[in-house]
Amino acid sequence: MSSAKTDKRGKRRASSPLFGLVIILALLATAGFFAARDFLSMRAEEPIRPSAGLTSIRPLSSYFPALAGTPGDTDVYVFKGREEGGRVLILGGTHPNEPAGYVSAVVLIENLRVDRGTIFIIPRANRSGFTHSDPQEASPQRYAIETPSGRRFFRLGSRVTNPVHQWPDPTIYVNPGGQALAGIEARNLNRAYPGRPRGNLTERVAFGVMELIRRERIGLGLDLHESAPEYPVINALVFNEAAADLAATAQMSLQDQGLDFRLEASPPNLRGLSHREWGEAAGIKAVLIETPNASHGRLKGRPSASLVVDGRDKFYVRAAGLGRLYVPFGPEGIPLRDRVARHLAGVAALLAGLADLEPENAVGISGLPDPDGIRAGGVGAFLRRPPGGRP
Ligand SMILES: [Zn+2]
């Protein structure tokens, strides 16, 4: 009897720690499950709901098959008019931490109709960059835009390709234009043009964009960006030589609408950028549009999803008071709606300028929300509701 008790006690002594271990493992597995779900949700793409004017969607790999099945392959939305005309490429999401560039491309896709000419839109130009966030920045993973049918969430990604998809970075990166840059720039799509067909993933994406430009005989390329309010190239049209007259014409028309834009000539010795290499390699007109985004500036306070959307930050108000910024910055901030309104006004002015300067390459569009409408109604008023969603 006594030995049985001992056995029993012995079993109890053995089973208690085992039971505790099982509980701990179960808790870790549960925490791991939720953490993994949260982490992997960064790689899920939110839907884009194209307007009835869409002609087709094709992968970038249809121009450069080596991209097929890679995280660099990305959708190209094509809007073809009935009449022949100019051929224009618009990129959003070259830098996925610059939300107005991406959201402007989405608003275009969800509203655009093309009557004459053809417009190609790539909203997630660096698709891999949307699958992670910039490290050590405490950036929110996503932000919400209120729409009449509820909130729509958008990913806030990183300036560069995900290191899971392209690793390691070199110590010094020499880009296809021959410029030596910091190693991390090897993952920056806007330093990788004109790309390399057998280069790293980012260079292959750049090469895919160049193949599209060549094969579709693009005449004008627009690249939609944002930069920090303390950066000098802001509220700007950055143009290559071939687009000088066009950018000046567009700037005058934007000025008439009360929208101040600087004109910045693309520096010939700054290599690898869209506004330089699209022209050098394919002879097209290229313009990059910049708007001010406090959420990726260095002077901001606490990063948050509301900073991305509302663009209000007291430290930027102070910096403006000290004369340190290149844009006016008041307590009302620079909200996403104003930045998207600027981008779309820029696109419309450049297309109107193209029609004036080169009538044979005119692109006729309709459906584009006007800047006042976006500023008054918000971006969400111009995002399409889900099929069967609430009116
Ligand atoms: Zn950018």
Structure notes:
This protein has one domain: Aminopeptidase (3-Layer(aba) Sandwich), CATH 3.40.630. The strands form 3 sheets. Strands 1, 2, 3, 4, 9, 10, 11, 12 and 13 form a 9-stranded mixed β-sheet that branches. It is globular. The longest helix has about 40 residues. The chain is of the alpha/beta class and about 400 residues long. Bound molecules: zinc ion.
Summarize the structure.
This protein is α/β, with parallel strands linked by helices and 391 residues long. The protein has a single domain (52-382), classed as Aminopeptidase, CATH 3.40.630. Helices cover 34% and strands 19% of the residues.
What is the total domain count? 1
Outline, from the CA principal axes?
Answer: globular
CATH architecture: 3-Layer(aba) Sandwich
Rg is 24 Å
What small ligands are held by the chains? Answer: zinc ion
Q: Please state the structural category.
A: alpha/beta
Q: Write the element-wise H/E pattern from the N-terminal end onward.
A: HEEEHEEEEEHEEHEHEHHHEH
Overall mean pLDDT: 94
Spatial separation of the terminal alpha carbons: 77 Å
CATH topology: Aminopeptidase
Helicity level:
25-40%
Tally the beta strands: 13
Q: Which regions are unreliable across 5 or more consecutive residues at pLDDT < 50?
A: 1-5
Residues in β-strands, percent: 15-25%
Largest sheet: 9 strands, mixed
